[in-house]
Q: What sequence folds into this?
């Protein structure tokens, strides 16, 4: 494509693997996050897609706490990668939209061709319609994002797949109408392979065969589909197909082919027509959507349960009923709840002509999170044809739209595998006419109005019949006693019976008695009741043994890699080779499908392949394996040290006593790259510490932890920070290195402060300080004294905290470590501010800022500016406070610690309110609360909620103020954060008095006054 000025233009292809082009050059768009973000935007061209929808699209139901920030970073990345990316991806309110023309996106072009075809058919221009449909279908190259787009994208894609298939049907039907016949048969057969029960396709094939003089084959197609429908669904072909069959049988003249009409030669139907594909940009789904799973052809037994279920369905489906029938099936896992529900739903489908919908809520799916009601509603609404831009972001909005969409319709809804009532209630229709079936392993007692059917193990007769259906009558009759024994050993559980039957079918020399004997050993029964793993291992072993020895060794060693993703640099370290050779190994393993490649430069194992790789080690490989692990840990230690030097200027570089890694390192020249590396390797680094601990490499454990926790602290991942610090303390004790122990204890103290474990923090930090004093290790002593002062400050013990901070300051000045000195000054400023000594608080904060002019550490500078703003507020200098906060906000971005950013915004809202700038107040409050909750730090959240509570109180929104102050009090009291506990009580007292509750107000005021007295601080100005 060329733009008007002759320059190559942009083009994006979404109907298949995502591709971007600038002229003839392929664009490298980035990793999975970037691809899913861009794909979601392209699926709704020209429409605003909220950030919340993009988060859901990328991570389904389990987004990380920084998901919104990662989405925005992904957008920034795409804008840099794509020429004129800022003009393509436009910020629009709470989200983004893409601005593309018809020639820039195949999805828009597809829709345009379909509209042209429809116009041509309406005007009688059949040849033009055929050409338009041919162009539309030729755009397809496979499923959207190659079928790896995640549940949201795949759920949104159902309607477009139906449009594509409908277009293919119309294309072939029009060509039949133009006199073609034999040349269409191959294409029709290909489509039927993909959609064997689609009667309209089968009818076109029958007609094409008949018009080609192949009447017997046409009748054979009818026989095939009749048997398939009877076996799979228990139904006969529809009236249209039956009428066509009868016409072929009597050679009806109206079925004769018309005179051929000349149309330019057509290529064979593009292969892309055949795979299933999907998108969110479709307009309407099939007229009667049905997403029920296939009914099992060998469904056996459960006659009583099925009869009861069908009775309830039909009895409660009378038009006079004024409620939605709700029938719930409960039973143990593997008892056949879903199979029973599907069989009943299929048999009752004709009672619900507007659709039969199924959704797996995954309440008990191993290794997967359950589906949230919000995600379930999104999927169901899209299945019924609701455009993505009309679906609200919040649960209440989606539930309301769902209820209104079902109004006046008769739809059967099967909610499968529910965990609890909370998953089900938002999905229930509000008006009569629909039917809801629910399956769950537990009876959902709070599901009011439900008819319950509990199913247990099968009866002996039903169990024997199921085994007979799967193994055949002859095999069961030959060993009746062993067969009955096998049914009992399987607990008459359908799932277990299917597994043992599959094993016996695949092992014809095994007798039923032989397998029953194996199952009699209770220590291995569950192992025997599993299928597929042995065959998977055999398949993998063939690929493994086909490789040269060097690749087999590399494959085994890579099984030791702790990360979920593997890059070239860590592979080079683990395998002791350069990065060029490491890439060759990874690509070879990728070629033989022993590795996958989620994005360029990154590789990963399938879980079963990793298990197989790990199983190849043993006593003979222990020495080589241990050497590889130590090299890998040395690599991680070296890279994290270099990344910390980039991200945390002024940080002391310590000698580890371990040999440095001498191989090539990833590019870490600037903070953006260093931070991106840390983000990508987060899981691998945590796993590397665990790997180091398992291998007894205690020094690696301690030093690697020291580096990692710097970034964990900056990102607000405090639980990981504390856990790793505890691991490092244990490792330092084992190695009996007091210097390492002192540093590790001091680091653990910081983690305890962040999480509100103040007593534990003082205990471990004091031990670290004492060790440092004994060894004369002044750096650790200074850090420990500063941390003790901090912990005492939050406990409100100001007089006790001050000497520790003064000692820390003296040591930091002596050692000339300005970064640490600035951190201590910010703590000192906080202490003075809580103590009511605002002038001294301002002096300490200014001193910290002066240091930051020399040491550019942005996060600390933000907090120093915030501390100075707090001091100005205490002094009534609101304009000066606003100036400080404007500077602080200018330094904050998506990578900033959310708790720190929240505090800046909360204080900004309060200062803006003092200055009468109400517009600024509203823009800060909700974002501050959201970030505070994301921070994972109860100290930050309590402080932010008190500040915002005060803002609401000044607005006379006393109920909201009481809510915020009360929650802040719960947080602060739980961790004994005295200053915020007292401020929360004071705020609760003012709110209670305004609400007319004078008794509670007096009680809160007394409690607050007592706390301020204990702290030796003046009561906080709450007006």
A:
């Amino acid at each position: 494509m060329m733009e008007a000025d002759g320059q190559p233009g942009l083009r994006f292809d979404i109907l298949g693997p995502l591709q971007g082009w600038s002229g003839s050059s392929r664009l490298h768009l980035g990793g999975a996050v970037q691809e899913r973000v861009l794909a979601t935007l392209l699926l709704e061209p020209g429409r605003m897609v909220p950030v919340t929808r993009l988060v859901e699209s990328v991570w389904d139901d389990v987004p990380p706490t920084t998901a919104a920030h990662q989405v925005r970073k992904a957008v920034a990345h795409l804008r840099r990668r794509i020429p004129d990316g800022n003009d393509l991806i436009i910020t629009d309110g709470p989200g983004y939209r893409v601005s593309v023309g018809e020639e820039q996106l195949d999805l828009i072009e597809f829709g345009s061709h379909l509209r042209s075809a429809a116009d041509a058919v309406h005007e009688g221009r059949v040849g033009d319609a055929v050409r338009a449909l041919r162009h539309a279908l030729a755009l397809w190259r496979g499923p959207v994002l190659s079928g790896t787009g995640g549940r949201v994208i795949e759920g949104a894609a159902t309607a477009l797949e139906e449009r594509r298939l409908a277009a293919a049907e119309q294309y072939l039907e029009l060509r039949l109408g133009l006199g073609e016949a034999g040349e269409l048969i191959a294409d029709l057969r290909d489509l039927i392979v993909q959609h064997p029960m689609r009667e309209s396709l089968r009818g076109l094939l029958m007609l094409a065969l008949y018009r080609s003089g192949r009447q017997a084959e046409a009748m054979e197609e009818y026989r095939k589909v009749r048997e398939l429908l009877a076996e799979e669904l228990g139904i006969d072909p529809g009236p249209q197909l039956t009428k066509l069959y009868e016409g072929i049988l009597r050679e009806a003249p109206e079925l004769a082919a018309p005179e051929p009409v000349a149309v330019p030669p057509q290529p064979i139907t593009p292969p892309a027509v055949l795979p299933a594909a999907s998108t969110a940009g479709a307009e309407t789904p099939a007229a009667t959507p049905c997403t029920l799973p296939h009914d099992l052809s060998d469904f056996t037994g459960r006659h009583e349960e099925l009869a009861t279920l069908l009775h309830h369905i039909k009895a409660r489906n009378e038009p006079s009923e004024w409620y939605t029938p709700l029938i719930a099936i409960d039973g143990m896992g593997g008892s056949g709840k879903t199979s029973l529900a599907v069989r009943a739903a299929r048999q009752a489908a004709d009672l619900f002509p507007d659709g039969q919908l199924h959704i797996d809520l995954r309440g008990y799916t191993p290794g997967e999170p359950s589906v949230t009601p919000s995600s379930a509603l999104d999927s169901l609404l899209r299945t019924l044809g609701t455009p993505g831009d009309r679906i609200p972001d919040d649960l209440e909005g989606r539930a309301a739209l769902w209820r209104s969409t079902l109004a006046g319709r008769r739809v059967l809804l099967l909610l499968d595998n529910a965990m609890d009532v909370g998953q089900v209630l938002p999905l229930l229709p509000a008006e009569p006419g629909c039917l809801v079936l629910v399956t769950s392993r537990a009876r959902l007692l709070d599901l009011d109005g439900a008819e319950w059917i509990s199913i247990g193990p099968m009866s002996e007769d039903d169990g024997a019949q199921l085994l007979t259906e799967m193994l055949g009558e002859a095999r069961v009759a030959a060993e009746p006693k062993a067969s009955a024994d096998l049914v009992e050993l399987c607990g008459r559980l359908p799932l277990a019976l299917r597994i043992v039957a599959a094993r016996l079918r695949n092992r014809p020399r095994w007798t039923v008695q032989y397998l029953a004997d194996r199952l009699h050993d209770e220590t291995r029964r569950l192992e025997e009741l599993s299928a597929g793993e042995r065959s998977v291992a055999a398949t993998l072993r063939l690929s493994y043994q086909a490789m040269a020895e060097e690749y087999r060794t590399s494959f085994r060693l890579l099984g030791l890699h702790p990360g979920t993703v593997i890059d070239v640099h860590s592979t080079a370290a683990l395998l002791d080779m350069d990065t060029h050779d490491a890439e060759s190994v990874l690509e070879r393993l990728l070629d033989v499908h022993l590795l996958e490649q989620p994005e360029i430069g990154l590789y990963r194992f399938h879980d079963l392949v990793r298990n197989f790789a790990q199983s190849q080690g043993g006593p003979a490989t222990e020495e080589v394996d241990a050497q590889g692990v130590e090299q890998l840990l040395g690599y991680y230690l070296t890279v994290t040290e270099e990344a910390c030097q980039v991200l945390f200027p002024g940080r002391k570089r310590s000698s580890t006593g371990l040999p440095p890694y001498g191989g090539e390192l990833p590019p870490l020249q600037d903070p953006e790259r260093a931070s991106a590396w840390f983000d990508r390797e987060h899981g691998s680094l945590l796993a590397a510490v665990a790997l180091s601990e398992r291998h007894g490499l205690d020094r690696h454990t301690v030093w690697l932890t020291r580096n990692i926790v710097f970034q964990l602290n900056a990102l607000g991942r405090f639980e990981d920070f504390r856990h790793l610090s505890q691991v490092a303390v244990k490792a330092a004790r084992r190695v009996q290195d007091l210097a390492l122990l002192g540093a590790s204890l001091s680091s653990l103290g910081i983690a305890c402060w962040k999480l509100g474990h103040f007593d534990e923090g003082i205990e471990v930090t004091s031990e670290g300080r004492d060790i440092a004093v004994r060894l004369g290790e002044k750096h650790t002593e200074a850090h420990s004294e500063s941390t003790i002062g901090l912990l005492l400050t939050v406990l409100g013990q100001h007089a006790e905290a001050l000497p520790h901070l003064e000692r820390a300051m003296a040591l930091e000045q002596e050692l000339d470590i300005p970064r640490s000195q600035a951190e201590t000054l910010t703590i000192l400023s906080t202490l003075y501010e809580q103590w009511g000594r605002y002038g001294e608080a301002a002096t300490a904060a200014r001193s910290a800022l002066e240091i930051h002019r020399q040491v550019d550490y942005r996060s600390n500078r933000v907090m120093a500016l915030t501390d100075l703003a707090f001091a100005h507020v205490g002094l009534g200098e609101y304009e000066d406070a606003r100036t400080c906060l404007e500077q602080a906000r200018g330094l904050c971005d998506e990578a900033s610690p959310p708790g720190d950013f929240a505090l800046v915004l909360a204080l900004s809202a309060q200062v803006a309110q003092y200055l009468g700038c109400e517009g600024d107040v509203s823009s800060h409050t909700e974002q501050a609360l959201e970030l505070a909750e994301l921070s994972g730090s109860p100290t930050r959240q309590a402080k932010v909620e008190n500040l915002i509570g005060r803002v609401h109180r000044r607005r006379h929104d006393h109920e909201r103020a009481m809510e915020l102050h009360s929650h802040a009090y719960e947080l602060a009291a739980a961790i004994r954060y005295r200053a915020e506990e007292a401020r929360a009580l004071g705020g609760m007292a003012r709110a209670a008095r305004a609400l007319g509750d004078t008794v509670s107000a007096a009680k809160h005021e007394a409690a607050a006054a007592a706390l301020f007295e204990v702290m030796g601080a003046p009561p906080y100005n709450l007006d």
In short: The longest helix spans residues 622-647. The chain has 47 helices and 14 strands.
